[in-house]
Amino acid sequence: MNTQDFADARKKLETLIRAGAFKNKKIFFFGRTDDAAVSSAFLAQKGLPVFGILNNSKRLAGQTCGGLKVYKPEEIFAGGAKGCAAITVSRYHKAMLAQLEKLGFDKNCFFRLDKFYYFATAGGNDDSLWFFLKNCFHMLRAKLLVRWLTAKYGLGKEGKVYVCGYPGLGDVYLACAHLGRHAKSSGTEKYALVVPHEAGRDIALAFDIKNVAVLGKQARLYLVALARFLQEPGIETICLSYDYANNFAVGLGFKQLNMRDIYEQAIFTFPRRGPKAAFRPKSDPEYIERLMAERGVAKGKSAIFFPYAGSVDNIPHLFWLSLIACLKEKGYGLFSNTTNEEVALPGTKPLSFPVREAKAVVEYAGWAVMNRSGICDVLSQAKCRKTVFYMPQRWMDNRGHIFDAFSLRAMGMGEGAEEIVLDGQALRGDITAVRRQLGL
What we know:
alpha/beta; six-stranded parallel beta sheet
């Protein structure tokens, strides 16, 4: 779940909590395991522990993801579903509810958290006149928005508006890293970039992209629709989720590619890998010194954890707890990144900072300890110890492993990073296995 989706989901969860929707209920998440792990941490803060994850995958059944056990619905509700509540963020929510109702589930205890980026399911019945008219109106708004951006940044008739439709931090990073080369190769001298959040603005500015606009989810949704379905001149979508980008690449005849190659060869259609733009975040040294002093971060002797991810499974807490114990023995100061209101890992102190300061923060601390996520791309050039963990997780209908898709070294962005695919013993919190995998 990306940052903006989580913010929206959190608001919906807070509304449901106030309404007593989960009172005296055994709570389950139905669908993606990474979404469940992130949202369950928020619910735990509110004193509402999540019992487990519902998923129809035979491969995942019985596994533990993000500290939550995965169950098949037929298994967990064989004896009835009274007193249970289920939450999903899936666009297949209607099919999920139908499946649960057959098992005796109360439809009033089934909750969908968010709206999705898919234009075809943006609201209403797809074949209704109201749906058609409403989206005609939104397309008109999108065209006016393109005109406004063109005028605001003085792009003229030959200029172009690029849209990062997908808000993943790593996707925005890679889109920005190659946008200048793409614009130059297509003869576009003037352009503006639409990004999904302030972190995206920080990334774009660090790549020396001058004209950057931050727009909300709905505005981006219809700009993307305008570009993809109506092929409006002067606007182009450059940021896709990995699932769609990889399917696109396979459809063009490519074999399994890593994320950087997906962007360069499938999205930007470069003939081969080339240099990416220099990433120069504008950090404030005085801010860093003040923040480090306030939070008690010892220079060169601290480890900052980035445990959460949006596109891959989150690592079980048992592993993190064992790793924290190991590093505490070594005398490290321990901190968790809580910039997007994530929950700090037990035994660590919370630490928040803007994305533009992230590189300077970890260089001061000395060690960035990360689950593979978009922050790894942002910190790929940081001059400090960097350890990136990967779940032993298959990807894209078992066509590859997440390490094949996201390895920083394979993407030519490692810059000395340690990359570790965690084994089963380490994931279960075996402290000996944790020490062995990290060489502690």
